[in-house]
Amino acid sequence: MLKNELQSILSGKQLLPDELSFPPSDLLNYEEVTYKEGITFKNKKPICNRCGNSDPVWFAKFPCARCRNTEVYCRKCIMMGRISECTQLVGWSGPPPEIQLPDKILEWNGTLSKGQSAASIRVAEAIRKNKELLVWAVCGAGKTEILFPGIEAALAKKKRVCIATPRTDVVLELVPRLKSAFPNIPIAALYGGSEDRHVYAPLTISTTHQLLRFYNAFDTLILDEVDAFPYTVEESLKYAAVQARKPESAIIYLTATPSTKWQRECRSGKRDFVTIPARFHRHPLPVPLFEWCGNWKKLLTKGKMPAPVCKWVQQRLGVNKQSLIFFPNIKIMEKALPILRQIDSKVESVHAEDPDRKEKVQKMRDNLILILLTTTILERGVTFPNIDVAVIGAEEDTFTESALVQIAGRAGRSPKFPTGDVTFFHYGKTEAMLKARKQIVAMNREAVKKGLVDP
Amino acid sequence: MNLFRADRCLLCHEIINLPVGWVSLFSPEKEKLLCSDCEGKLQPILGETCRLCCRILNEFRREDLCIDCVRWEEDPEWQGVLERNISLYVYNDFLKEVIARFKYRGDYVIAKAFANPIKEKLIGDVFIPIPLSEERLFERGFNQSEALLSGAGIPATLGILTRVHTEKQSKKTRNERIHLPQVFQITEDTKIYGKKVVLIDDIYTTGSTLRHAAKLLKEAGAKSVESFTLARG
Ligand SMILES: [Zn+2]
Ligand SMILES: [Zn+2]
Ligand SMILES: [Zn+2]
Ligand SMILES: [Zn+2]
Predict the structure, then answer these.
(1) Looking at CA atoms only, how far is residue B224 from chain A in angstroms?
(2) Which residue of B has its CA nearest to A77?
(3) A220 — phi, psi (to 5°)?
(4) What is the 3-state secondary structure (H, E, C) of B81-133?
(5) Which residue of B has its CA nearest to A355?
(6) Does residue B1 register a pLDDT over 60?
(7) Is the pLDDT assigned to residue B176 strictly greater than 90?
(8) What DSSP letter does each residue of A93-121 carry, written as one string?
């Protein structure tokens, strides 16, 4: 193994010896190779040094055949390979590989909307000054393009940039867009099972989970959809982000729906942020309507659907308008499916563990499905150009403020069809529902004030 | 014992709320390790199964044997070598994922999730986990079959059956598998003489590995050899 190969594999990383594609004995010849204990103890309590887990319920013991001890291992990050007491995380203390820059870094000729370009300037500034910035952009604002000038400035300074996003499909969607914007910059795409896992690149597009494999790597870290994870997962990903960025670095958070805590911090001036309150197509966001539908759960167990919901569905069928109907969970959705199929036999459903998920989403895209029932899996990312959206049981706990904003954000996405109906059917309004509507209304108002929507 | 503890499901980590009643007060060994959702996804092997290998019988059968077992039993070399196989669950997508996490990701503690059914169904004199090769053992850090036994608190008998060399099983044809050179060897036989031996493995797929081991154990004096696996592939 040559030194420069090792340098590019290990720079900015913390890897398990098992992850290496060569025998660990190759490491012995280089004093730049660093080792860090995988698990350490503080007051006799274990801490995982890869994911930061220190909660005892996430640790277990096993009799290790390697060191012949019964030892603690971390269950929280086990999907990235097991870390136990005898595991060393391998890194690199030498300089990183030299980056060769092309003459022209950014080759993108698109234009930014007024709202986008204001945000773009703030992003570039935060990147230049190694600051922290939250970009609060409504669903459909176009948040990828606003990063381009900032990324260009960073790369020009030989800074290493990473965009991390929760889902693999988003990584796969972002990579070609960034490759065409930065055609002469090597880009590494990282997700579970990706081939680029040992590639050193000035620009990395990664799932948030893969950040666990990095250490002191990035001068600019862009975290997409920071609000997408449940709290316990979020904690370890926050830790991963801190580990992955350099101490002196910029961090840009992208979200359409910041948590209540972050919103408060924004309002009180504790958190630097910029909003993009309007969509690229200059039309306001559809504001959700609340419609009381009685004790829908009770009706469902009797094999019935609340009348307002039936009416809503029939109206959509009558004018052939594609619609997404969100349910709190799979069980409830499965009860509703046969009932709605009595209205129209072509009603379909999809959920996270559905083996035909991809095909069904594609059929919806191809306009072969008119009414699609779904759980919250389709709340993010997936866009259909011209749809109406309904939520059944909007008062349920699964429908948080951010989930509801995301769901409402599915409608009116395309410039050709910039409007759409969003109805939250409920059996009692919740704070989450009210906050979600308030957030949408506030964004629309701000957009008008800043002249970002057409009257 | 804490009466009001909230345990977490070993597989999905959701909180399991234990109903505290007489049962949990008097039989603490029956503590719940899986939530009802995960438990529901494990599919016990029900219905008419092959007398020998525990496979759910379909049209490819002869009386109470599946066609694979018929072929093994017709071969004088293999006839009666394996007394029978008991498997706990159907190897469905859920169990596939669970076993992958347990064995390949190395989440050892998952073995505990199966302690109760193993304790209930495993009967014999001597319990021998199918050994791994040195390389595999190093790679995984533990032997999954041994882990299953130890999770159930059943002592494993080690050092009798060992591996001579490794070869990838799955890429071979059935014929090649049957005529595979012996991958095991007996290093000590005093503990198995005249005993009812049970071999432990995570999955019964072709039954070939288990039969090779069983053959040696019988030749070394075991009264009978059965196998016991978590999943029936
Ligand atoms: Zn060890
Ligand atoms: Zn960990
Ligand atoms: Zn569970
Ligand atoms: Zn059989």
Answers:
(1) 30
(2) B105
(3) -135, 125
(4) CCCCEEEEEECCHHHHHHHHHHHHCCCHHHHHHHHHHHHHHCCCCEEEECCCC
(5) B93
(6) no
(7) no
(8) -SPPPPPPPPS----------HHHHHHHH
Architecture of the CATH domain A289-439: 3-Layer(aba) Sandwich (3.40)
Inter-chain contacts counted by CB atoms under 8 A, chains A and B: 42
A354 interaction partners in chain B (CB closer than 8 Å): none
Q: Note whether B92 and B43 are within 8 A (CB).
A: yes
* Arithmetic mean of pLDDT, A169-173: 89
Is the CB of A79 less than 8 angstroms away from the CB of B101? yes
CA distance A71 to chain B (A): 11
Strands B224-232 and B85-90: parallel
The pLDDT score that the predictor gives to residue A353 is 77
Nearest alpha-carbon partner for A10 in A217, A190, A205, A248: A217
ipTM, 2 dp? 0.88
pLDDT at residue B166 greater than cutoff 90: no
Q: Report the range of poorest mean pLDDT among A270-274, A398-402, B20-24, B142-146.
A: B20-24
The rounded distance, in Å, linking the Cα atoms of A329 and A331 is: 6
**Range with the poorest average pLDDT among A159-168, A324-333, A427-436, B5-14:** B5-14
Amino acid type, A256: A
Task: Provide the b/e sequence for B156-188 (b: ≥16 CB within 10 Å).
Answer: bbeebbebeeeeeeeeeeeeebbeeeebbebee
Same fold, A114-276 and A289-439: yes
User: Distance, CA B85 to ligand 4 centroid (Å)?
Assistant: 9
Give phi and psi for A80, each to the nearest 5.
-100, 15
Tokens of A63: 């009799």
Chain B 127-146, CB below 8 Å of chain A: which residues?
Answer: 137-143
Bridge partners, residue B186, by sequence: B161
Q: By the 8 A CB rule, do A396 and A332 touch? A: no
A174 alpha carbon, distance to own chain's centre: 12
Residue-range domain boundaries for chain A: 2-92, 114-276, 289-439
DSSP codes of every residue in A367-424: T--SEEEE-GGGGSS---SS-EEEEESTTSTTS-HHHHHHHHTTTT-SSSS----EEE
Q: What DSSP state is assigned to residue A56?
A: G
| Closest listed residue to residue A15, CA positions, set A92, A112, A99, A97 | A92
Here the tokens at position B93 are 């997508």
pLDDT of residue B4: 45
Confidence of residue A25 (pLDDT cuts 50, 70, 90): confident
What architecture is the A114-276 domain classified under in CATH? 3-Layer(aba) Sandwich (3.40)
Look at phi and psi of residue A89 and say left if phi exceeds 0, alpha if psi is from -120 to 50, else beta: beta
Closest by Cα among B188, B209, B97 to B145: B209
What pLDDT, in 10s, does the model give residues B131-164?
A: 999 999 999 999 999 999 999 999 999 999 999 8
Give strand pairing partners of A5.
Answer: none
The single residue listed with the structure tokens 């590989």 is A97
3-state helix, strand, coil in chain B (%, to 5): 35, 20, 45
Distance CA B129, CA A151 (A): 56
Return the amino acid letter for A107.
Answer: E
